[in-house]
Specification:
The complex is a heterodimer. By secondary structure, chain A is of the alpha+beta class. Chain A contains 15 helices and 21 strands. In chain A, strands 12, 13, 14, 15, 16, 17, 18, 19 and 21 form a 9-stranded antiparallel beta sheet that branches. In chain A, strands 5-4-3-6 form a 4-stranded antiparallel beta sheet, with no helix packed on it. Chain B is built from 3 helices and 7 strands; from the N terminus they run ααββαβββββ. The longest helix of chain B has 16 residues. Classes of the chains: A alpha+beta, B alpha+beta.
Chain lengths: ~450, ~160
Amino acid sequence: MGKYRGNVEAIKALIRETEVHRDVYVDDEVFALEMEHVFGNTWVYVGHESQVPNHGDYFATTVGLQPVLMVRHSDDTVRVLHNRCPHKGTRITAEGCGNTGKFFRCPYHAWSFKTDGSLLAIPLRQGYEHAGIEQSHAVLGLAPVRHVHNYRGFIFAKLNDVGPGFEEFFGESLTSFDNMVDRSPVGKLEVAGGVLRYMHNCNWKMLVENQTDTCHPMVAHESSAGTAIKVWKQLPEGSKKPMAVEIYGPFMSSYEFFENMGIKVFPNGHGYTGVHHSIHSDYSAIPGYYDKMVAAYGENRAKAILGENRHNTCYFPNLMIKGPIQLIRVFKPLAANKTLVESWTFRLVDAPDMLLERTLVYNRLINAPTSVVGHDDLEMYERAQEGLHVDANQWVNIGRLYEPSEQADMTAVINGTSERQMRNQFHAWSKFMTMSMQQAG
Amino acid sequence: MKVPSNQDLVDFVLHETRLIDTHRLDEWLDLFADDGIYWMPLEWGQTDPRLTASLMHEDKLLLKVRVERLKGNRTFSQKPKSRCHHVLQTPQVDKRDEAANRYVTWTPMHYVETRLDQQDLYAAWATHTLAVIDGTLKIKLKRVDIVNCDAAFGNIQLFM
């Protein structure tokens, strides 16, 4: 047995009020336990229903390290199934997405399954007459993930039976999803534009923490955002500010800007930056969009929806969404030191195309493997992944603007440069990590 | 030059690559027309750069930001700097439209980018759309299709 399995006290000791032990980022055993517990006991994002509009449409992905597929069943609901043939283990889906028709058919031995996962047929079934198949795993077909929830089109799954229900887990934090969806005049989103996939040689939590780290943009991104402003200022007087400069520019905002932006934290590790304003507040209006919103919602409600400018909302454990620009990032853990970052974009149904165009420009400039902003972030993560092996100091500090009266699992609004959301995440991490852990005797 | 020969077009592509590999990026930038674009699609056979994501779709302003950034003192991901190397097949002239002043070449290539102990190899096709402007050839569009354009990549920091 290793140091951490079956040792609740050792796991809890990794998280202190204002610091966390480096093993949460570098230790392989801790990583394996995260996959079992943190990614088992919480509601993890799977995909969006618009990816599977028709019966038989599927999308293959992972929850933690578990291969799953999301499929539109014949009763119109979206199901999440474990993505392996119950026979020999073959992954059922051929590609990342597609349409399987009325049933899945394993390409190895032609076992077939309905799109709710139930077993449809086995060739030469009489060969199993005395094989006890009715009592085996095999007869269950493609096992469904037991806990699945569709929130306004976003599909989440919880692998284990322990852990809170969907509404209890997310609570008021769901308002960030609401705002993103409400920005469509018809209240509907569609995945659009393609997904940017960016490989990171670092722990997944570094990426999550960075989403609410407001003290790094003006430092780490000076070379990109600062240079963009400089190059733009060399253009002739009166030149229109390009969309790209509108996007890069606010990364160079002052500490004061980020302090006043505010952070809101919620129970269970969720929280967002940009309570009062954000780097997305001052984008140019898109012609025709406001009028459509007013026609759909009335002026007051339209103003309220568009006046909300949340920056990054983190949903524990590994999802971040940007409501005002309809972009989400999924931080997929592959190993303690390896993370795949997927950045997905959405079209606001019935809104002008130019909104999607801007979202795609943002995604390309900030989240692509070719992004000059991404390059400097990744450099920091990889250097941290290396530096954390220093034995002389084994602790990572997350104490900025800590207050001794601070309580965990609370809703609170705080200064925008606080590291409280990081503390909030690690409190949730400790809770869900140990929730179902059996103490070794 | 008013009408470029096929050899002029081939020489241009070879010269362009040499400027990238030798880090003469200000001169490289000058090869682009004022409305020139560098495009690296994300999707296999992509036709739309606007409502489909790309890895890069940059005008001269954005390319200049990259080139200036590479010179910066606080460009942390370039300390130490990346290096790169191209191996090209002979560029093929696909289209010559003298009346429209439009010339298209197609160049299969291998591109290597290195930094510290890391070396990454990419296979790609470069399609150059060129025009004669004020007597010299300029890039209207350089399109780089990476063979595995939809794969998950680490940092790609220089120019293919």
